[in-house]
Specification:
With 188 residues, this protein is an alpha/beta fold. It is built from 7 helices and 7 strands; from the N terminus they run αβαβαβαβαβαββα. Helix 4 runs parallel beside helix 5. The radius of gyration is 16 Å and the shape is globular.
Length: 188
């Protein structure tokens, strides 16, 4: 990436919207396409912060030292993705707690269910953590089984969900128009 490119793009986006802007660099190990070294990742995140976005998503997998440095620059969603499994309820609760301790404004956890029980495990961990942590959290199950968590997560304590305007960036993302309809029914 060319120096200043991210800043310019994000500042241009901010000019044309009154919505919150979330800056994200998703590496391949967390489900994205970016093949970056830790140093390149840090540089990109700092450039996103320089654009004064409302929130920046940083990956817990970048390591504690990197994460501790990055949380000083912006309001942070700290994320971890499990594309192969749903960890135990205790492990998910511990991960969300670590994120809070490390300075995340919004701890975020995405997992892959293999059964309906896995979906329930995520929702239990969400409910427990949302009641005990001092910050709002974001959780979701991915894939077809996980769609319910994206639609009803708020009832278990997840403060945000993600939809897709075009192509899904994660398995199980619901198209925006469909999610709006579901949420309208649930909130009616």
């Amino acid at each position: 990436l060319k120096e200043g490119h991210l800043t310019n793009v994000l500042e241009e986006i901010k000019k044309h919207t009154d919505k919150l802007v979330l800056g994200t660099i998703r590496t391949a190990s967390e489900g994205g396409e970016g093949e970056l070294t830790s140093l390149e990742y840090m540089h990109c995140i700092k450039e996103i912060c320089d654009a004064h976005v409302d929130l920046v998503d940083i990956e817990l997998s970048q390591g504690y030292e990197s994460v501790m440095e990055l949380v000083q620059y912006a309001h942070v969603i700290m994320s971890e993705h499990h594309f192969e499994e749903t960890p135990s309820r205790e492990d998910m609760q511990e991960t969300l707690e670590k994120m809070e301790i490390l300075g995340a404004d919004l701890p975020k956890l995405a997992v892959m269910p293999e059964s309906k029980e896995d979906l329930l495990t995520l929702l239990e961990a969400t409910l427990y953590s949302s009641q005990r942590l001092g910050k709002p959290i974001i959780t979701m199950s991915m894939g077809k089984l996980g769609r319910l968590s994206r639609m009803m997560g708020e009832y278990f304590g997840s403060c945000m969900t993600f939809a897709t305007a075009k192509d899904a960036s994660a398995p199980g993302q619901v198209p925006l128009d469909d999610l709006k309809k579901v949420l309208e029914v649930l909130h009616d």
